[in-house]
């Protein structure tokens, strides 16, 4: 699979999984702006945004839920190995 296809699938699965999180630090609407994967698919940087959210708390909550989110990816996306997720605010940094 091409990196762009993997990124699109990861974005879709993560959007649904994040929407299902029941953490008070996660607002109702969190947008996965983009996902960028390293060439070996070992790391996926997930850029998120949310209107009026406390971004440090949101990123902390998503990092805390990383195991659950990675299991969702492994269940729904056919990959040799599930990438480690790294969450960032969409307002920072360029893709890999």
In short:
One of its GO terms (molecular function) is ribosomal small subunit binding. This protein is an alpha+beta fold and 96 residues long.
Please estimate the helix content: 25-40%
What is the CA-based Rg, rounded?
Answer: 12 Å
CATH topology: GMP Synthetase, Chain A, domain 3
Contiguous helical run count: 3
Number of domains: 1
Major sheet description: 3 strands, mixed
CATH superfamily: K homology (KH) domain
CATH architecture: 2-Layer Sandwich
Give the low-confidence spans.
Answer: none
Mean pLDDT: 92
Number of strands: 3
Termini separation (Å)?
Answer: 18 Å
**Strand order of the biggest β-sheet:** 1-2-3
Structural class: alpha+beta
- CATH class category label: Alpha Beta
Give the overall silhouette.
globular
- Listing every helix as H and every strand as E from the N terminus to the C terminus, the arrangement reads HEEHHE
Give the strand content: 15-25%
What is the topology?
Blueprint: H1 3-19, E1 31-37, E2 43-49, H2 55-64, H3 66-76, E3 84-89
Parallel strand pairs: 2-3
Antiparallel strand pairs: 1-2
């Amino acid at each position: 699979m091409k990196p762009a296809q993997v990124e699109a699938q990861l974005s879709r699965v993560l959007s649904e999984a994040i929407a299902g999180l029941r953490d008070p630090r996660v607002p109702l609407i969190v947008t996965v702006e983009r996902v960028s994967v390293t060439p070996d698919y070992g790391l996926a940087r997930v850029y998120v945004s949310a209107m009026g959210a406390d971004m440090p708390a949101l990123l902390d909550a998503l990092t805390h839920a990383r195991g659950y989110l990675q299991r969702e990816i492994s269940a729904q996306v056919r990959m040799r190995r599930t990438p480690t997720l790294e969450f960032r605010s969409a307002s920072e940094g360029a893709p890999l």
